[in-house]
Design a protein that fits this description.
- The chain is built from 14 helices and 2 strands, in the order ααααααααββαααααα.
- By secondary structure, it is mainly α.
- Strands 1-2 form a two-stranded antiparallel sheet.
- Strand 1 and strand 2 form a beta hairpin.
- The two termini are about 40 Å apart.
């Protein structure tokens, strides 16, 4: 028996000993395209991170939309009041819509970023290969993900805006006598909103969202990659380094674009708010910024920002950790290898 025949026999025996299920799983993962693995890893990481910070996200929305009884309270007092009114379940109201949105959003964001980056590198070599590419690719990926998932974000905001009183009734803290719909879930929100205004209503507030996400997503990737460039080579693969750079990138990006997020939230819940006290409908983002500053004060543009700082660090930490674990399990090659595979 030759050496080649012996090696084939040994490999066949090894397959039998290892067991077929394990071998099928390995071969299935090996045959999966890299971009599909990135979609799965990004979506799972987004879901884990979003659920972990759901209570803070709910309070942030209540503060941003100036919900009566909450806008003058601090973070911990707001959490206590919400617990009293709705119980633990109230912390996660709207989180179903948020997770359903964040899974495709995060998946599309990571995958689109890699694809746009390769596209720019292949077709616009004059731009070089530095952090500017990350800025452009991140911005384009963020816009793509937002347009694909915005109706779910609208549903999440409307559900989170509802506050259930201790008797079980829905309270929007309205001063007028017009009854407002009590949404029972994601599907109910989407159906009701579509019936009222069609597709245009489902994308109410998408303007400030896009204006905000383009610089935010771009800055996030740009700052993250720029910070990594200043890290010594021996620490490049450190998970602590990645978490630190990601958290700082998120903090800077959020601070610069947060006022646009406030305008977006107020536009999303306009139909649930009274027409008095300066809550007139905003025709565009610039008008929204102007009216909020004039009627509610410039501080309202940063309402809930402290909570955003509190939630973004653990959110980024959990997201990066989960993403790394998923990449390891799915056997996603390092970024340099991924580029060559995608290009080929």
């Amino acid at each position: 028996m030759g050496s080649s025949e012996g090696s084939v026999l040994s490999s066949n025996v090894a397959r039998l000993i290892d067991g077929s299920p394990a071998r099928k799983e390995v071969s299935y993962l090996d045959g999966m395209p890299v971009y599909v693995k990135e979609l799965i890893a990004g979506g799972a990481a987004g879901a884990f991170a979003k659920t972990a910070v759901a209570p803070l996200e709910r309070i942030k929305i209540l503060l941003q939309t100036r919900t009566k009884g909450f806008h003058s309270l601090g973070v911990f007092q707001s959490l206590k009041k919400l617990l009293k009114h709705e119980g633990v379940q109230g912390f996660y109201k709207g989180n179903g819509a948020s997770v359903i949105r964040i899974v495709p959003y995060a998946a599309l964001h990571f995958m689109a970023y890699e694809q746009y980056r390769c596209l720019i590198l292949d077709n616009y070599s004059a731009l070089g290969s530095g952090p500017l590419i990350d800025l452009l690719a991140g911005a384009a990926a963020g816009g793509t993900a937002v347009l694909c998932t915005y109706p779910l974000d609208l549903a999440r905001t409307k559900l989170a805006y509802q506050v259930v009183e201790s008797g079980g009734s829905i309270n929007y803290h309205m001063k007028n006598n017009h009854a407002q719909p009590a949404y029972n879930g994601i599907r109910d929100v989407l159906r009701s909103v579509y019936k009222q205004g069609g597709m245009r209503a489902l994308y109410r507030g998408v303007g400030p969202t896009l204006i905000g996400i383009l610089p935010y997503a771009g800055l996030k990737f740009y700052i993250y990659e720029e910070l990594k460039r200043h890290v010594p080579e021996e620490h490049q693969k450190s998970i602590v380094m990645r978490l630190s750079c990601g958290a700082l990138a998120g903090l800077f990006g959020q601070t610069f674009t947060y006022p646009l997020d406030v305008v977006r939230r107020q536009m999303q819940v306009e139909s649930l708010q009274p027409s008095v006290q300066g809550n007139a409908r905003y025709r565009n983002t610039l008008e929204g910024l102007t009216v909020i500053v004039r009627n509610q004060g410039w501080r309202q543009l940063f309402a809930g920002l402290s909570i955003n700082y509190m939630k973004i660090v653990p959110s980024v930490a959990i997201g990066f950790t989960a993403y790394d674990m998923m990449k390891s399990w799915l056997q996603i090659p390092p970024r340099q290898k991924t580029r060559s595979i995608s290009a080929s």
